[in-house]
Amino acid sequence: MFGAGLLKGLAETARNFVGSYHDPARLPTVEYPERRLASPENARVFPFLVYDGADPERGLRCVACKICEKECPPQCIYIVLERDERGKPQKHPRVFDLDVSVCMSCQICVEVCPFDAIRMDTAFEWSTPDRFGGLLLHKTDLAKPNRYYHQIHPTEAAETDARLAAEQAKAEAKAQAQAKPKAPPSQPAATPASATP
Amino acid sequence: MAQTLDQLLVLAQQRLVALWPAPWQPWVAAFLGAAAIVATFGGLFALTTWLERKGLARIQNRLGPNRVGPYGLLQPIADGLKMLTKEDIVPRAADQWIHFLAPILKVVPVLLAYSVIPFGRHLVALDLEAGLLFFFAVGSATEIAVFMAGWGSRNKYSLLGAMRAIAQLISYEVPLVLSAVSVVLLAGTLSLPAIVDSQAGHGWAGLANWHVFTPWGLAGFVLFMIAATAKTSRSPFDLPEGESEIIAGHMVEYSGFKYALFYLGEYLSLFAISGVGITLFLGGWRAPVAWLDWVPSYLWFGIKLLGCIAVFIWLRGTMPRLRADQLMNFAWKFMLPMSLVTLVAAAVWHATATWTFAGAGLWRWVLGAALLLLPYRALSRGLTQRGRFGPRRYRFAD
User: Fold this and answer.
1) What is the dihedral of CA B361, B367, B369, B374, to 10 degrees?
2) Residue B216: in which H helix or E strand, if any?
3) Residue A89: strand pairing partners
4) Do A27 and B61 touch (CB under 8 A)?
5) Does A12 contact B318 at a Cβ distance shorter than 8 Å?
6) Looking at beta carbons, which pairs linking B353-357 to residues 24 or more positions away fall under 8 Å?
7) Sign of the Cα pseudo-torsion (B79, B85, B86, B90, in order)
8) Rounded to an integer, what distance in angstroms lies between the CA atom of residue A22 and that of residue A28?
């Protein structure tokens, strides 16, 4: 019958209309600023720097090797190596800047980092009235504790920690084996993970 | 008490008019009526934009505006302020006067059309003998506004949009008037208050004697409302605007308050045409059953009007837009013949009113329904299968 399809369509929209008042499946909207969904574990926005221990300055895993700076496709990372008064490199960044207005969240810096020092953050609320200064993140903004890393990416962080611990144990065993012939056992070789004071 | 409440607005107007010296009184009365209409339906326009956005949102499983005020109720004010503060751009090549007058001409005739609609018992601004004729006459003037907007903008897209709009508006004017004519045939008058009076009383099972409760009245009401949808260029007949095809048609070159005026005119004509549909077929301000007569008449009109608006919103949330050729086919090959058939059915209903034998009422119904359903079946076949009878075949779905 001509017009039956129209009535069927009207019934469907009426079901949607009425259902949106009592059926949560028909009203999936989450009113964002008041209520928010948890980020999925694999979410990634911009990178941050992981530090161990309590001191964001000394606990930084980054050794300023500048691999991420060189690999970064849009070149949004800027690193200056720390040197002591005699000009000796300190395996520590003096400046670590990241321009999030340039960053494209590709995660290449994370993949190339040999020290597991840089990881992807899930924080996404970066709006700022200052589009130059507000979006240029410095070392102090970027440094976040390992605890935070465990919060946002638990599986990945556990895997990283296990690997670092295994590497450290291996290095200690090697150092002990090398120290055996000599009389006094010296300090184990410093690994990135043992940079914790 | 109930009677005072029913006549509250009329009495208030009389009181206010009596405060003025006698020679001024007709002018004051006219002004009061006009002011009341503009205020009421301007407010209803604001409310309807909110209702529409909320309703459409719910149909699409969204929440709709809910940021400005409680439940987003102040959204129309925010929208109005936005429209008012926008820059009013007039193209350099445009015909300045026509470009300026078009939005005004879109609104003013619609406001004039309100003057003949009875909103309640004795609540009509202008009780014209030929009220219905006046309504359709001034209602048609908005078509000129559409073409003025398209032509005055000197933009080929707005001109094309306006030509499409004019083709649609004129095509649907015919079934709109013809379906109203069947009511005039039965009521024997063109005056809208008199048409409401012709639907007085209660018939079978205490149901009111509204025209919509007759076979020809039901068909006429549906046809009238479809034509009204097209006449006010609302979805699914919103080809004149067609955001996805011709941006906004004749309104391409309008911005700010002039653009808002076009929308105001569109919504006002929607209310006006719904009001006339209510008056013609739904018994105007009359209650559906006798024991609800104590509710003030203007409230009944308001309830019916809001019901009509809800149906229009529902339709807008459901139907996809027609193609231009489908629109024309529907108007000339279906709506026009069907409204003529409705006219015949109304005439038969009128002629058989003198039947007195047993079961006459039932036979009148059967006859009227048959007179409408058989042409309906044939015409819809003609529309969907190019006149061929037989099982329906889908060319692209096999």
Assistant:
1) 170
2) helix B215-231
3) A83
4) yes
5) yes
6) none
7) positive
8) 12
Beta carbons within 10 angstroms of residue A191's beta carbon = 15
| Structural domains present in chain A | 47-153 (3.30.70.3270)
Across the interface, whether the CB atoms of B319 and A31 are under 8 A apart is answered no
- Domain-located, residue B5: no
Give CA–CA dist B129/B236, Å, rounded.
Answer: 35
The verdict on residue B21 lying in a domain is: no
Residue range A108-113: mean pLDDT, rounded: 92
CB spacing of B380 vs A12 below 8 angstroms: no
Where does the pLDDT of residue B184 fall: very low under 50, low under 70, confident under 90, or very high at 90 and above? very high
Q: What is the distance in angstroms between the Cα of B372 and the nearest Cα belonging to chain A?
A: 14
pLDDT digits (tens, 9 = 90+) for B101-153: 999 999 999 999 999 999 888 888 888 888 899 999 998 888 899 999 989 88
Size of interface A-B (CB pairs under 8 A): 45
The domain total for chain B is 1
Cα–Cα distance, B261 to B171 (Å, whole number): 24
Q: Is residue B278 part of a domain?
A: yes
Query: How far apart are alpha carbons B239 and B193 in whole angstroms?
Result: 34
Task: Report the alpha-carbon distance of residue A31 to residue A17 in Å, rounded.
Answer: 19
Check if the interface score ipTM surpasses 0.85: no
Q: Which of B58, B62, B380 sits opposite A2 (nearest CB)?
A: B380
pLDDT of residue B385: 62
Contacts of A64 (CB under 8 A, 6+ apart): A79, A80, A81, A82, A89, A90, A91, A92, A93, A94, A96
Using the structure block, give the residue that is written with the tokens 């700076």. A69
Closest-CA residue to A93 (of A71, A67, A111): A67
**Rounded to whole angstroms, how far apart are CA atoms B339 and B347?**
12
Residues of A in contact with B384 (CB under 8 A): 2
> B73 to chain A, minimum CA–CA distance in Å?
17
**B335, amino acid identity:** M
d(CA B221, CA B278): 9
Residue B33 lies in a domain: yes
Phi, psi angle pair for A95, to nearest 5°: -125, 130
| Residue B246 contacts residue B284 (beta carbons within 8 Å) | no
CB B353, CB B363: distance < 8 Å:
no
- Any bridge partners for residue B202, and if so which? B208
Q: Is the pLDDT of residue A193 over 60?
A: no
Domain containing B204: what range? 28-385
Backbone torsions φ then ψ of A89, nearest 5 degrees: -60, 145
